[in-house]
Automatic annotation (TrEMBL):
<dbReference type="InterPro" id="IPR038607">
    <property type="entry name" value="PhoD-like_sf"/>
</dbReference>
<dbReference type="InterPro" id="IPR032093">
    <property type="entry name" value="PhoD_N"/>
</dbReference>
<feature type="signal peptide">
    <location>
        <begin position="1"/>
        <end position="34"/>
    </location>
</feature>
<feature type="domain" description="PhoD-like phosphatase metallophosphatase">
    <location>
        <begin position="157"/>
        <end position="506"/>
    </location>
</feature>
<protein>
    <submittedName>
        <fullName>Alkaline phosphatase D family protein</fullName>
    </submittedName>
</protein>
<dbReference type="InterPro" id="IPR029052">
    <property type="entry name" value="Metallo-depent_PP-like"/>
</dbReference>
<dbReference type="Pfam" id="PF16655">
    <property type="entry name" value="PhoD_N"/>
</dbReference>
<dbReference type="Pfam" id="PF09423">
    <property type="entry name" value="PhoD"/>
</dbReference>
<keyword id="KW-0732">Signal</keyword>
<dbReference type="InterPro" id="IPR052900">
    <property type="entry name" value="Phospholipid_Metab_Enz"/>
</dbReference>
<dbReference type="InterPro" id="IPR018946">
    <property type="entry name" value="PhoD-like_MPP"/>
</dbReference>
<dbReference type="InterPro" id="IPR006311">
    <property type="entry name" value="TAT_signal"/>
</dbReference>
<feature type="domain" description="Phospholipase D N-terminal">
    <location>
        <begin position="51"/>
        <end position="141"/>
    </location>
</feature>
Length: 526
């Protein structure tokens, strides 16, 4: 996919404007701005110092997000040019404490396959002349004609005690991904670590010291709505993430650490760190904060709606975003001979089958927040993901995945690829029925990446039920390796507009390509 140099210069210029507008949040000045809520008796004009985001972009629409430092009216302007001549104005919501001063404005009727420049202002509800400095961003709408697509994906941010380290420059990997100039970013979950308090400093194995920026909300496990909000707000203290958000649209899903490790509906905690033991109560608060801090078309700011959805990116790509948290059964030994609920729930599975059948895209990316054939344990007896280590016929949650894979085969659905994160290393698995205990499916690939900025862990074992063969893996040999030692990963997927070939690259921080796989279009299996 070729883009003109003029386009690159324009996007850099926009980002310079964005950085200037949010300079008050540069790392050295962060602690003064890290409180749980904006002050109510502020003089001057509103401020959008937390940056802007765009999410769930289609060929003609997108969602623009901002956070204010006080009650304000959100106003968005869009234009085809950096000069904002002939700009179109969108009057957004009045933001206030009910949504932690966040707001989202839906843009409709945008031209397909084009660069959209936008700027956001916040105006005083009592006096519209008192407005914030504008915060700028850009994004590309999805094409309606066949055109190349490139996107990046990963997950796991600020986990296992490794937060924003000013000495290291914060979340540097986002600047690296931004320079790849992707059409969008798929975040595969664990956007925050609500159950992972930060310490001001951690001594590393070589004797050096990792220094964390710590806010009040990041000093304990999150339980209240304010604490969950503070966890999402913490990540936006990083200037690289804010610059990335201003340029790259997101497709965001969640996993467990948005609430707490390995949670499932109905769980009652025995963790002494929590005064609220009912996970359903915690999940409702976390879900509301998640909905407030990300522009997601199927969620309302109060958290009602759903996380699972499909985003259509022109004739070459549909992205099917799964939710393996909200509808799952309880973690268990995972060996039930019957299991209707599984990890998706019956309703979500029916939705996924229906949408896959309707899709006419060349490639159908299944964005899964957990891997299929990697054994992820929850304690000594229970299991957290799909697999449980028994290489025989499907049991437990595997039954639901077997049903889905059988459906894909018999409906002759072409171009399915599974992308995920979760396990804190990077790998590529090829699933083949001739190697499997369950053989009624066509071959497919699963690509794993992450973490973006968190502890890294050794590779998990493979479960043979669906015949996976691990053709590539890079992982440390011990648990919770810090970002200072590397092992931070993201993936890149690129679809050629002419041939339709899909090239998947697994990259590590620093830009090196670790593994490449080229997939051919039009096949039920690969």
């Amino acid at each position: 996919m070729v883009r003109g140099s003029g386009d690159q210069v324009g996007r850099r210029a926009v980002l310079r404007g964005t950085a200037a507008a949010s300079a008050g949040l540069a790392l050295p000045a962060v602690p003064a701005l890290a409180g749980t809520a904006p002050a109510q008796a502020l003089s001057g004009r509103p401020s959008a110092r937390w940056g802007v985001q765009v999410g769930d972009v289609t060929s003609t629409s997108g969602l623009v997000w901002v956070r204010s430092d006080r009650p304000a009216r959100m106003v968005v302007e869009t234009s085809a040019t950096e000069s904002f001549s002939r700009a179109r104005r969108w009057h957004g919501p009045l933001v206030g404490p009910g949504t932690d001063f966040t707001g989202t404005t839906a843009l409709h009727g945008l031209p397909p396959g084009t660069e959209v420049h936008y700027r956001v202002r916040l105006t005083d509800p009592e006096d519209p002349r008192r407005a914030s400095a504008p915060v700028y961003g850009t994004f590309r709408t999805a094409p309606v004609r066949r055109r190349g697509v490139r996107f990046v994906w990963s997950g796991d941010l600020a986990g296992q005690g490794w937060g924003i380290n000013p000495d290291r420059g914060g979340f540097r990997i986002f600047e690296e991904m931004r320079r790849r100039d992707p059409d969008f970013f798929l975040c595969s979950g664990d956007n925050i670590y609500a159950d992972g308090p930060l310490q001001p400093s951690v001594t590393l194995p070589d004797g050096s010291v990792w220094r964390n920026l710590v806010t009040e909300e990041k000093s304990k496990v999150a339980e209240t709505l304010a604490e969950y909000r503070g966890n999402f707000r913490y990540n936006l203290l990083d200037e690289h993430l804010r610059a990335f958000n201003a340029q790259v649209p997101t497709i965001t899903q969640w996993d467990d650490h948005e609430v707490r490790n390995n949670w499932y509906p109905g769980q009652i905690l025995t963790d002494d760190r929590y005064t609220e033991k009912n996970v359903d109560v915690l999940a409702a608060r976390a879900r509301r904060a998640f909905a407030e801090y990300y522009p997601i078309g199927t969620l309302r700011p109060d958290g009602e709606g759903r996380v699972h959805r499909v985003l259509r990116h022109g004739p070459l790509l549909d992205v099917f975003v799964l939710d393996m948290r909200t509808h799952r059964d309880a973690n268990s030994p995972n060996r039930q001979p019957e299991n209707r609920q599984g990890i998706l729930g019956a309703e979500q599975l029916a939705w996924l089958k229906r949408e896959l059948s309707r899709s006419r895209a060349v490639w159908k990316v299944i964005a899964s927040d957990m891997p299929l054939g990697l054994v992820v344990a929850d304690g000594t007896a229970n299991f957290e993901a799909v697999a449980q280590g028994d290489p025989g016929a499907p049991l437990g949650r595997e039954l639901q995945i077997a049903e889905l894979l059988r459906f894909v085969k018999h409906r002759r659905i072409t171009g399915t690829v599974w992308l995920t994160a979760d396990v804190h290393y990077t790998s590529a698995q090829h699933y083949e029925p001739s190697r499997a205990a369950f053989g009624d499916f066509e071959p497919f690939w699963e690509f794993v990446t992450g973490p973006l900025h968190a502890g890294s862990f050794p590779a998990s074992k493979l479960d043979g039920t669906f015949g996976p063969r691990q053709v590539f893996v890079k992982a440390p040999d011990r648990a919770n390796v810090s970002p200072a030692e590397g092992f931070q990963f993201y993936g890149e997927a690129e679809i050629d507009g002419d041939s339709g070939e899909l090239t998947v690259r697994l990259r590590e921080e620093g830009g090196a390509v670790l593994f490449t796989q080229v997939l051919q279009p039009g096949r039920v299996g690969q």
